[in-house]
Design a protein that fits this description.
There is one protein chain. The chain is of the alpha/beta class. Helix content is 42%, strand content 16%. The chain has 15 helices and 12 strands. It has a 4-stranded parallel beta sheet with strand order 2-1-3-4, with helices on both faces. A 4-stranded parallel beta sheet has the order 6-5-7-8, sandwiched between helices. The protein has a 4-stranded parallel beta sheet with strand order 10-9-11-12, with helices on both faces. Helix 4 links the parallel strand 3 and strand 4. The longest helix is centred in the last third of the chain and has 17 residues. The structure holds iron/sulfur cluster.
Amino acid sequence: MKIKFLIRMEKDKYVKEILKLKKEKNAVILAHNYQLPEIQDIADFVGDSLGLSIEASKTKADIIIFCGVDFMAETAKILNPNKKVLIPEKAICPMAMMLHPEEILSAKEKFKEKNPVVVLYVNTHASCKALSDYACTSANAVKVINSINNDTIIFGPDANLADYVKKHTNKNIIAIPKFGNCPTHHKISVSDVREAKAKYPNAKFIAHPECRKDVLEMADFIGSTEQMIKFVRTSEDKEFIIGTEIGIIHRLRKENPGKKFYPVADTAICPNMKMTTLESVYNALKFERYEINLDKEVMDKARKSIERMIAII
Ligand code: SF4
């Protein structure tokens, strides 16, 4: 159905209507840590890709509203093929767009005598996941790869995460594509970190493994968004420079009122993650748009790699 107009209401009214519709339709709202503060505040669960994938696999709701980007909503659909999964905005992940099924097939062919295992970051489309043996997230990539018996691993699409994994395993990691990256993390530079450290000398620098190798070398802690949240919660330190998308700072401040957080760079913003608004969540619930539909065979194949990952962690 084509929506010809968007209903405009004040923020409080949207929140009220969203909560009402959510109850009426037995819907659950999942939001990634990088979503806008007001979206995080109305969500039933806020987390990283892994946490949200697990929540999606456990939910009893009939409708899942996924506030994030396309591959995340696809993952929720793969794990819940009989439920309606809606994404409020057609938000894409530029990194997921960097890998295509043909590239996986060609790498498998090229290294076939080594019997490679394909491990793909969850930031991939379903058509790629369907060709993989295991999925992984930034939280568990090292654990998943170390649990595999083969020595040769085809890994994609994030070359920075591939570098990070290489450092923590003895496997032969073949990155596909060669220079895949998350533009938001890849643009965080060594000079950003130096400047932030000079400005906040008492702060610990915590970074996401999607950052470049030279930036990670300057970090006091490296982890996924959820691992960063845990690190901050349990740390004795009071100030932190945040080396990931700035959306996470909302949750960090909310959960740690006595601590201070500074973005490593004000430009660490993923525009795709910021597309979702209260208005679009309302419209998703009201008009049940935009629904994720995937081919059954693709979903069945992709599910195996996600379930293998969940079994390891
Ligand atoms: S932050 Fe990076 S990986 Fe995450 S959705 Fe944006 S572009 Fe993709």
